[in-house]
Amino acid sequence: MKKVGLFFCQAPCIEGPKFDLQYLADSYQDSAATVHVFHEMLSRSSIDTMVRLISTHKLDAVVLAGCSPEFIKSTIGGEALLEELMSSGVNPNMIFHANLREQCLLAHPKATEEVLFRKARALTDVALASASIYKPCEVIDEPPHRKVLVVGAGEAALLAAYHLVRNNLRVNIVHPFDDWRYASEYRSDMNLSRTKLEGSHLFNFRTATEVIDVAGWAGDYEVTLTREGESAKERYGAIIAAVGKDYPVFQHLWSLLQIDFNADGAPQARNQHTLATRSAVNGISIVLPSNAALSTDDQFRDQSLQAGSAAMDIMTLLYAPWMRHNVAVSRVASNECGLCRTCTKVCAFNACSIDERLKTSIVDIRRCKSCGNCVVACPAGARDLITNPTGHISKAIEIFQRARKPEETNIMAFLCAGCAYRAADAAGMDGHPYPAGLYPLKVVCGGRVDMQHILQAFETGFDGVLLGCCREGHCHNLVGHLYLDRRVVLIRNILESRGINPERLRILDISPHEGELFAKAAGEFTEEIQRMTKGEGR
Asked: Residue 184: what pLDDT?
């Protein structure tokens, strides 16, 4: 039996209606090895207390009930908390989150205390259930490659390279044009930086060169570059995408580098406030285009600050003596594998292959993104994800089903981690409420959503199912949204054959910061479902 610590945050940053959090915490005294309510979870004293409780109770897993997991992962304080928990012996795949702030209290400011309590309990129950279903992932420690790839050739790219070379890191700049882009536009105060770079043995600049593939993880990325029809693989510890106003030229890179988009298709940082040059993954930074409305001097100042920030982030990373990597991949039950090769056809990252000697499908851990496309596509059911197991999704649907009230309109929402889940967070943070009858479940990718889970949601009494995924071309997993779109056509036909109105299933394509759009879509869908169910004699 796993020992679980349940840690609540009172979230003093929340204004508006609340429920009795201590009463909720007390109700779990028999469900966890230790239960504790913190006034502010990210404070030094709170983290020290958590570390002590982990040691005292020899905890196998931890549930953090408070802020969104995406908020915690993308803030400096949140990063520090997670690092401390893992250093205390908790496996990274055994840290769970109940999103009580963004997707409960902030999302439903006019809800009654009873409604908020019921939803908060359901979210906490799902997180606790995860601890019994998930298994620890493998962790690999290795020293980083102290070499950086900079993509771009504007002033920001040169400035980032200059900072890195000055600190004795090897740097390659690549870009697809035939010469130095914007050479005539460089400011006079850039001349010394260019001279310094061109005279350094640590620096290399390649024109007419493009990035076509990226595999691996922070500290050890394998990048495939192509020039004049010839390709080569090179190893880098980190990557900086300093593309400036040329960002449309590098559109193909965003998914490879797991960089977010805004609704207009422009690149966007993971956290625009405290980690303004960080992508969705460690070891990849981005220098964003400056606001075109700024003066030339102000644009240069902005690019210079971003380049320095990106370089500092990378230097901090690569000068560590070693790096820790969580092996979060698709697992294969080799005794169930039918050697049909479906997984090799649907994997966009070439992570799946067939081992003829072992007679089973195998996974390249450096290429697998843990998106779940192969899990859903496997006809033998021989695959599952370490980071988003099938049993967890089924159990979450059961828990949410018990929490709902039949007289209310209830929607089961499967939200992809890259965009839709974060859009739901943004709705709460930005003050755009949506109906409390929407129950959110984060899945790693739209391609992870299985037809069986959609049917389970309808069969257990949900009035509607919302599938939130990335916009076309924005998917961190390249094709997750495409596979979902294709499956939905089949799913609608199956629903209709079972007497379920297929319009009760809705896909929402969205960007991560479109909170207002998420709230509007959730509200409109709820109203449509109410009209449908009323007409169907619910």
From this structure: 42
Q: Residue 151: pLDDT above 90?
A: yes
Phi-psi region of 11 (alpha: psi -120 to 50; beta: other; left: phi over 0): left
Return the H-helix or E-strand segment holding 517.
Answer: helix 515-535
Mean pLDDT of the residues in the chain: 89
Q: Are 264 and 175 in contact (CB under 8 A)?
A: no
Burial label, 528 (beta-carbon count in 10 A; 0-12, 13-18, 19+): middle
Inside any domain, residue 323? no
Tokens of 323: 């790096």
178 and 310 belong to one structural domain? yes
In a domain, 57, yes or no: yes
Contact 160, 154 (CB under 8 A): no
| Domain enclosing residue 441, as ranges | 387-538
Q: What angle do CA 451, 458, 450 make, to 5 degrees?
A: 15
> Number of structural domains, the chain?
4
Q: What is the pTM assigned to this prediction?
A: 0.89
CATH of the domain at 132: 3.40.50
pLDDT in tens, 469-521: 988 777 877 777 778 888 888 889 999 999 999 999 999 999 888 999 999 99
- Pick from 400, 401, 364, 363: nearest CA to 382: 363
Neighbours of 252 (CB within 10 A): 11
pLDDT attached to residue 441: 97
> What is the H or E stretch that residue 260 is in?
strand 260-261
Give yes or no: residues 237 and 309 share one domain: yes
Q: Rounded to whole angstroms, how far apart are CA atoms 285 and 52?
A: 34
Rounded to whole angstroms, the Cα distance separating 158 from 528 reads 53
Most confident of 96-100, 110-114, 201-205: 96-100
How sure is the predictor about 81, in pLDDT bands with cuts at 50, 70 and 90?
Answer: very high
Q: CA-based diameter of the chain, in Å?
A: 78
Distance CA 223, CA 209 (A): 12
Domain boundary pick from 137, 165, 192: 137
Q: Same domain, yes or no, for 343 and 232?
A: no
Q: How far apart (Å, rounded) are the C-alpha atoms in residues 143 and 203?
A: 22
| Distance separating alpha carbons of residues 58 and 5, to the nearest angstrom | 9
Structure tokens at 34: 């230790």
Query: Do 178 and 230 fall within a single domain?
Result: yes
Tokens standing for residue 100: 């009580």
Long-range contacts of 344-350 (CB under 8 A, 24+ apart): 346/373, 346/374, 346/377, 346/483, 347/373, 347/374, 348/373, 348/477, 348/478, 348/479, 349/215, 349/478
Residues 346 and 308 in one domain: no
Q: Are 510 and 404 part of one and the same domain?
A: yes
* Residue 38: closest CA among 49, 27, 30, 23: 49
